Amino acid sequence: MKVLQILPELNSGGVERGTLEVSRHLVSCGHQSLVVSHGGRLVPSLQNDGGIHIAMPVHKKRLGSLRQVGMLRELFHKEKPDIIHARSRVPAWLAWLAWRKLDQHNRPRFLTTFHGFYSVNFYSKIMTRGEKIIAVSNSVKEFILRNYPSVREEQIVVIHRGVDPRHFPCGFQPDPAWFATWRHDFPALQDKQLLLMPGRITRWKGQQDFLKLIAALRDSHPEIHGIIVGEVHPRKQEFLGELLKLAKSLGIDDRVTFLGHRDDLREWMAVSRIVYSLSRDPEAFGRVSLEAMAMGLPVIATNHGGVAEQLALMLPQGLVPQGNQQALLEKTRAFLLDPPVPAQVPDCFLLQSMLDSTLATYQCLLS
User: Fold this and answer.
1) Which helix H or strand E contains 258, and what residues bound it?
2) Whose CB has fewer CB within 10 Å in the chain, the N or C terminal residue?
């Protein structure tokens, strides 16, 4: 097969990681992998694994992006992919507009992945145009069927995002070199118990609730230190400023460290006591919580969306009602006193299952 995946950029995030994982697997199985995006820091990784990157400005939500439709149609004619896999709304619109004018008897098969609970409107409906629609969790499948009555249930394939237990083994510990660098760069953290909040800096991820939790623990647990890891998009600098002001007003600006984007999140999770997923809106899946539990770490998460599906099977006692700060505080105190061990990762949440199911979906379309 020749598979062309299209997404806005290749910087960071679950969509981007999934794209690279599928590309790597395609190449390892003897297929050809093309990825169209505006580019980003993950392009070298894609290319090192045998994928081909085609840089096009398919990332901006504006009318001018429609100029890419003709260029994409030329690309489809030239490369003749068997599969076009759209992973985001703007690229999906551009790819679909280019694809639908191709000869119906010879054109590639077209599918989409619902990576999120998109706003329900005409713009988002493009993600239902796939001949097959991949939903990254059962919650997303239910969302699609509830909001888009024209979609047939058999059109949807649920393929959970997956964790590689070889990369996130239970009991993982960083190597001595990482520890040496960590001690040098963060000497003030050495005697602390770290609570870790991963997730890009955006209002719905729940960093405000995490800061309030650290403030509530300040007097009873002076050894606690909060760590917030996540990329700050240029458009989110103002919100980051709000978070820093909130930390200061709560009197915990010396009890919280904002790390920004990190390539060593696995290592930071390994040195933390508890990992949090406190999104105010449901996560479509939420890969980091799964990775933490695969490593044997306790996770506390709001009880909705794809993260709740994970904890229901692996650590149900880690779920708390969204917005209930008292429940979050009590759960944290209980986990600090007696940390539970998550169950083994079920097959449906393994990376190999995700890859096998994705390729099987491609082959089903082609057959």
Assistant:
1) strand 256-260
2) C
Long-range contacts of residues 286-290, Cβ cutoff 8 Å, at least 24 apart: 286/310, 287/14, 287/17, 287/161, 287/163, 288/198, 288/199, 290/161, 290/163, 290/345, 290/349
For residue 53, CA distances in Å to 2, 32, 41, 177, 347 come to 13, 12, 12, 33, 31
pLDDT band with cut points at 50, 70 and 90 for residue 194 = very high
Strands across the sheet with 52-55, in order?
52-55, 32-37, 2-6, 83-86, 109-114, 132-135, 156-158
- The letter for the amino acid at 309 is E
Concatenating the DSSP letter of every residue in 330-367 gives HHHHHHHHS---PPPPPGGGBHHHHHHHHHHHHHHHH-
Q: Which amino acid is at 115?
A: H
Give SS3 for 231: coil
CATH superfamily, with its number, for domain 2-162+350-366: Glycogen Phosphorylase B; (3.40.50.2000)
Per-residue pLDDT tens over the stretch 235-289: 888 999 999 999 999 999 999 999 998 999 999 999 999 999 999 999 999 999 9
Q: Which of helix, strand or coil describes residue 19?
A: helix
pLDDT of 61: 87
Compute CA 281 distance to the chain's CA centroid, rounded to the nearest angstrom. Answer: 14
CA distance 189 to 161: 32
Global pTM value: 0.90
